[in-house]
Amino acid sequence: MPKAKANRRGLKMISCPCCGKRFFSETNVLQHMNQPTARCPPSDNSVPCSSINRPPHFPSADSNAYQDWDLNPPSPEVHETEDFTMDTPEEVIPLVPGKFVEVYEGSSEVFPGGKSFMDTFHEDQYSGERRSNLYFPFASQQEWQFASWLLRSRLSLTAIDSLLALDIGIPLSFHTGKQLRAHAEVLPSGPAWLCEEMEPESPTKHPVHLFYRQPLECLQSLLSHPLLTPHISFIPRKVWMSVARVCRIYDEWLSGDRAWEIQDALPRGATVLGVVLSSDKTNISVMTGNCMAHPVLISLANIDASIRSKTSLHGYLLLALLPIPKFVHKTTRVRGLLQDRLIHQALNRVLTPLKTAATVGIMMSDLAGNLQYCYTPLASWIADTPEECLIAATSPKASPITTATSKNFGDPFHHPPRTSSITLSAIQHACAEQDPFNYKNFIKVIRALRLNGVAEPIWKGWLLSEPSDFITPEPLHHFHRFSWDHDTRWCILATGVAEFDYRFSLLQTLVGYRMFEDGVSKLKQVTGRDHRAVQRYIVGVIAGSVPRRFLTAIRSLMDFRYLAQAPMFTDDSLTELASALQDFYDNKDAITAAGARKDSWEIPKLELLQSIVPSIRLSGAVMQWSADPTEHAHVQGIKVLARAGNNRDYYNQIACHLDRAEKCLHFDIATYMESKRGEEDLRVDEIEGNETEEDKEHEPDEEEFPTDHLAATRSPINYFTIVDALVCSCIPNAPRPYRTFSTATTAFHLSTKPSLRLSVDEAAAMFNLPDLHTAISEYLHRLESGMPHRVSGVRSQQDHQLPFDRLQIWCKVCVQQMHYHSRQTPDTPQTLRAFHPSTVNPHGYDAAIVNADPDSNWPQRGLEGHSVVQLRMIFRPLHSELLAAYVQRFDVVAQQGNMNNRNAGTGMYLVRWAVRSNGSRIGDVLPITLIHSPAHLIPHFGKEAHSQLTSQTSYELSSDFWLNKYWSKEFYYALSSLSR
Questions:
Q1: At 68, which helix (H) or strand (E)?
Q2: DSSP string covering 812-844, please?
Q3: Are the C-beta atoms of 580 and 479 separated by less than 8 Å?
Q4: Is 595 left (phi over 0), alpha (psi -120 to 50) or beta?
Q5: Burial class (CB in 10 A: 0-12, 13-18, 19+), 680
Q6: Which residues of 958-977 are buried (b: 16+ CB within 10 A; e: fewer)?
Q7: pLDDT of residue 786
Q8: Residue 98 burial (CB count, 10 A)
Q9: 3-state SS, one letter per residue, for 867-906
Q10: The pLDDT value given to residue 78
């Protein structure tokens, strides 16, 4: 049998754990690390290579790959092919320093005979014309770029005709919008849209049509997509903190127990494709009307969660547009039952190929054009709570995941899972007791059984797909919407509407974060972003105005949400997560006692929180199942397109536009890759003609065709990369000292030109810093003597003569850190302000965390060895390399009976202005590089906020503050580590 096909230049196999260079095998990695001149010495913490990437077994010519399979093997012709070059599998398990990775042996075998993305492009019926004109049916690349823009735009045919009637100076092969769209029909197509008329059980006002695409074709499109190629994995794995295998790590779906268990149930060599579906009704009318759409999206859990969540990378494809009929039956409850049945009927029509493939498997082409025998279990169905009940075939009075009913939603324990057998048994009992088509009597039966009346649920017969497993927690609704609907309402009732809004209006927020000048209670059309914004401040805002146990209950729920949003978990962090939820249950009676809620706790989302820890162990981190990307896809792929049409045949127009847009995207990628093929081959031939054998072995792999420019992603600016370029003199004309610089944990960026140029005395008067002169003198003395920098306010120097008189002053600095859970990924930069007092901005200062101990380690050790300060001035002495900041210190207020000095109610540090005996605030000058993180403070308002406070004066007139750990998730994780 010929070898499996792979392109040596196009594969990313194994990365060096130190420098990130990519190699083909573990041997090459070790050779690279053991080079005498290498900067990547092997570490005792490195993962044993023998356990990292054990290649799955490959069938040989004299072995029967299907001998243990109770299936008919594919015909031999499927594997016939000629140009194969290597035997290495294409599954990539990256080296993870300090961790032990156990991969599932014998999974994801590959066979020759598949088709890659470019193979499909070359087999198009017009491939012959494209040998002479790559952009056929368009005359040139310039014409294609113009046509592509028109096709993807939302311009009507009339508007396109008007544009093409102008003399734009480009010779075009089309002159009207219809001719342009006729050209687009010639482009290679992806999964085709189909339309079928359905026959509902009961009469409807209008014919019912189902628009959909073949799901297996959609999955094949995702598997072959060049933009997703480096980010798809196939082999289940278990990641441990150490080789002792004591503490487990959960992140992606393939790292959970469920992927491993599914692989156990499949034949040896099979590939698991975890299907991800998402559905939700969405309104496409503007202002008036009642037009709805019910889209279904499809993706793969095998795609990295960070990539799948970026809608610009097209990790989700629109699979179907479910009908929303208007039944003529006069009873509302019966109409709802008929609609639910029709949804499941339509889903069964669309998803039957996936159910079949989950049972018997199907050959599909992988990233390099080889074949894999794939099974398609349902990994996750992303939906809000009502949609989850619809999919699970349960009523709103029952949990879609567990056997709990509405009376049990407040129970402080996890109920047994609602398995498919339980629900199917209840459906069978209901059908035996009453005819399902005798709607009124059948409704009475299913009401008692907590069913929605669907007799043939979509998941029936879907192998290895239990509703209690694939209905995963959804953060947008289960966390943020829950917080707005319940936490915020409880706090308003306990604090009082006027007091609650007044406290929110007094907050000063960091740049880029929402302010609430008019409070919160009267907000209209609140979005998920608003839900998150309120969560950032609500614990500190209500502190002091509510009973302590009430505050503890709210804080515990907030801790649970923040901890649950982590991108990875360990067994220890899952224990902490469960403990936070238990703290809420231990104190939730205080919410009832405060009159914020009645005795009943019939909140479906509250019961669903009990399933989060088990879901993480089964399916990985919950953030990968967030509806944020799918909601965004609804806006871009449904609402915007529907509103750009003529308000008729919405589904038909949406399908046509998406079909054209997808053709344009794929044609863009294919033509770019094809145009680069010749020059890439020439470059490689030149290199290979001059390199030695040793060079070949240690040469890192490069992608065959860089396609990053085709992805419309907007990544945050990376100041760390800019610093590297400056250090390597890649920017020779950069002003000195560099305005962008970094430490091991933090990068800084200042504008090229300072905001002000003042003398020291003028700066002291303008910024209201009477001790600035002496503070600078003390700072210079510490630099000369090598003393550590601390904000002590001590002045040891008697002679305050400075070697300079002029200062360059900046009013803002951008600070950037790495993500807490991914130290190689930069976070979004945060601007810190240090404006001088003025009538417009009396107190424009932000808080920060600075290094107070040379041995401190941010963020691993949290606030230990650090100080909380207010940034008052950023400056540089003229003709000097020094960049410094004047800061004023806060002291942590000791909490009686609490060793870590955190308040028991808020879980936050209470800080107070550090003052001298005369009442003046303690400040000092520090190197700006001692700033480790931005921070946010909330005034401790007490029982009632002072009526004379305003948002401009509340911080200067307050003495005590809460160090708000909830203002960002990265700051929360730094201050809430298990080790502290």
A1: none
A2: EEEEEEB-SS-TTSBPPPEEEEBPPP-SS-TT-
A3: no
A4: left
A5: middle
A6: bebbbbbbbbbbbbbbbbbe
A7: 87
A8: 12
A9: EEEEEEEEEEECCCCCCEEEEEEEEECCCCCCCCCECCCC
A10: 37
How is residue 741 written in tokens? 């610089």
What is the SS3 assignment for 847-871? EEEEECCCCCCCCCCCCCCEEEEEE
**DSSP code at position 250:** E
CA-closest candidate to residue 399, choices 423, 428, 429: 423
Tell me if 269 sits within 8 A of 109, measured CB to CB.
yes
Cβ count within 10 A of residue 862: 21
Query: 754-758 — which CB contacts under 8 Å span 24+ positions?
Result: 754/808, 754/809, 754/810, 754/876, 755/809, 755/810, 755/811, 755/812, 756/808, 756/809, 756/811, 756/836, 757/806, 757/807, 757/808, 757/809, 757/878, 758/806, 758/807, 758/809
Position 57, amino acid: H
What tokens were used for 58? 């490959």
Nearest to 215 by CA among 62, 350, 96, 82: 350
Write down the pLDDT at residue 285: 73
- Residue stretches of the chain with pLDDT short of 70: 1-98, 286-289, 678-715, 797-799, 842, 977-980
19 Cβ neighbours under 8 A, 6+ residues apart: 39, 40
Burial (CB < 10 A; 0-12, 13-18, 19+), residue 927, is middle
Provide CB contacts within 8 A for 969, sequence distance 6+.
562, 565, 566, 820
- pLDDT tens for 902-947 read 999 999 999 999 999 999 999 999 999 999 999 999 999 999 999 9
Residues 470, 380: Cα–Cα separation, whole Å: 4
Q: Given this model, what pLDDT does residue 59 score?
A: 31
Centre a 10 Å sphere on the Cβ of residue 855 and count the other Cβ atoms it contains: 8
Q: What is the pLDDT of residue 794?
A: 85
Amino acid letter at 180? L
Cα–Cα distance, 219 to 230 (Å, whole number):
16
- Rounded to whole angstroms, the maximal C-alpha distance in the chain is 99
Q: How far apart are CA 654 and CA 295, in angstroms?
A: 11
pLDDT tens by residue, 327-337: 999 999 999 99
DSSP letters, 758-816, are: EEHHHHHHHTT-TTHHHHHHHHHHHHHHTPPP--------S----S--EEEEESEEEEE
Q: Is 960 helix (H, G, I), strand (E, B) or coil?
A: strand
Query: What are the tokens at 19?
Result: 């420098």
Q: How far apart are CA 859 and CA 863, in angstroms?
A: 8
> What pLDDT shows up at residue 697?
42
pLDDT number for residue 346: 97
